[in-house]
């Protein structure tokens, strides 16, 4: 992809929101324009899918891409594509928008009209966004397996963003996001009539795509979040996922201990 390196003072102040210097070849003006579009589309979202989530994912994706490049595993990674895909990865999320095609038109207008991207370059941005979702990847892998084909190849730029998005779904931040989203949908924490047993829930969700059958927020850990560590695409992402997975696993373990009053050393009652 062509590098766009125009800079302006206004853009410099805007890109400082990323919280890290932009690598060479990534236009501050491009980042500023895309970020303004993201803020307009996502500024009213709840904290599980807000602009801060997008910024965290963008910083993490850049860190992953730079680490993979430094290690020689991704020598030709396009950092501008990493940044733009990361910034835009949630603007077409159907949980928050009724018309993803309208958002795609807005993205195209920014890239083509303001930054002289060719149609093929725009497709290089939009198509990967559709590959980041956990559910869509599951469906894609299942379709490939049913056809006797290997899983679809994912470009390294998309791998970095996908890993970053999944890292933001686990660990302490992931826990907070899970319950924030559940709260906006008035979901219960769990349902005693469904299950409060860790081993039972692990068994019931062992097969890819399986679900507990309840929208309780705790069950989301078993259906998706506990599986993300094993789905990281990059070596850097896998290393970063280890500690976050342990934080999340410890939280869920303690949650069930408290539900069952395990280990509280309560005085015996008659």
Helix-strand layout with pairing:
Elements: H1 9-15, H2 28-42, H3 51-70, H4 79-88, H5 100-114, H6 119-129, H7 134-146, H8 156-167, H9 171-184, H10 198-204, H11 217-223, H12 235-259
What does this structure look like?
- Pfam families: HD (PF01966).
- This is HD/PDEase domain-containing protein.
- The chain is mainly alpha-helical and 270 residues long.
- The chain folds into 2 domains: 1-145, no CATH class; 169-270, Methane Monooxygenase Hydroxylase, Chain G, domain 1 (Up-down Bundle).
- It has 12 helices and no strands.
- It is elongated and about 80 Å long.
- Mean pLDDT is 90; it is low at 1-15.
Strand content: under 5%
Instruction: Tell me roughly what share of residues is in helical segments.
Output: 55-70%
Oligomeric state of shown chains? single chain
Largest sheet: none
Shape: elongated
Distance between the termini: 74 Å
Number of domains as seen in the coordinates: 2
Structural class: mainly alpha
Q: Low-confidence runs (pLDDT<50, min 5 residues)?
A: 1-15
Mean pLDDT: 90
Kindly state the number of beta strands.
0
- Give the helices and strands as they follow along the chain: HHHHHHHHHHHH
Helix count? 12
Rg, Å, rounded: 20 Å
In short:
This is HD/PDEase domain-containing protein. The chain has 270 residues and is mainly α.
Key traits:
Methane Monooxygenase Hydroxylase, Chain G, domain 1; 2 domains
